[in-house]
Amino acid sequence: MTTLTSPAPPGRRAVLALARIEALRLVRHPAPWLGIAASAWMLTTTNDGWATAEYQGYLAALTPLWLGIAVAVVGAGARGLVPLAEAAPVQETSRAVARLLGGGVLVLLAAAVVLAARIALGATGGLRLGDEPGRTEHAVYTLPELLQPVLLAAFAVALGLALVRVVRSRPAAWLLLLVLWFVVGAVYWAWSSRPATFLTPVQVQPFYVGVAPATADPNGFPDAWLLAAPNDYQDYWARLVVSPGVAGAHDLYLVGLTLLLAATTVPRRAPLRRWLAAAGLLGAGVGVVLQLALAP
User: Residue 111 CB: number of other CB atoms within 10 A?
Assistant: First the structure.
């Protein structure tokens, strides 16, 4: 007895076909590849002059990649500004979903970059973190921290699509993206205070936890502590704490932000828009609460 399998609905087939077209366009766009090259250059020039420079700077060095991804998808979003006829075979909601799905190829590209960087980091033994006597040369990122740059790539896709829909101009969107990623990525240290570190998209760890005045003898601290010595910007000894729990909660917050941005790219009357917005608000809110609860 032969069992017949029903083909996928025409609407789904059309969305997947459009998503493949968008993905091919995005892969051929030069911006993400230029972003990878710029990130590689920044990785080789990261300053190691203070206790957390390498550990924090290596994450921030991926800012050009996220910018390149956002710039690339602006073109896809701009095509969605052209009004469709009511009799169009594929309506705008399906096209919006296809653009979001097509942007997934750049998220996979970012994941490949992060994986390659993690392998290279393991081969070189890790990063410097801390000051003597509480210092290591073999620090590596936890899994939630490694997920963050991949989720930031998804955030960049949704951001580029949403921003051009609001400003309705490619050059204006590119300029705003350059400013935004410079603010949250290139000057990441400006967001190190609480609660800003829980709300900014690019969260860098470790956390500085004050443990003693500058006059204290650091040799009396537990051997397992990583330390930041007093300097021109810090008049106390601090313990450096990497929290996978906070990093995981921040990942959830990023997922929420991404869903909220994705909702703005879908036509207002579409039920999908309401579902994305509700899920985004829930994810972002829970992520912030968990970060506050788990922070050292």
Answer: 17
pLDDT-above-70 percentage for the chain: 92
- The encoded tokens of residue 279 equal 């899920």
Q: Is the dihedral of CA 284, 287, 291, 293 positive or negative?
A: positive
* Cα(151)–Cα(110) distance, integer angstroms: 9
Report the SS3 class of residue 149: helix
In the chain, domain spans: 10-294
- Taking each continuous run of H as one helix and of E as one strand, the counts in the chain are 11, 5
Largest CA distance in the chain: 85
Extract the runs of DSSP E, i.e. beta strands, from the chain. 127-131, 134-139, 207-213, 226-228, 236-241
User: Closest Cα to residue 265, out of 105, 87, 148, 103?
Assistant: 103
What's the pLDDT tens digit per position in 111-160?
Answer: 999 999 999 988 988 888 988 898 899 999 999 999 999 999 999 999 99
Structure token digits, residue 147: 């997920």
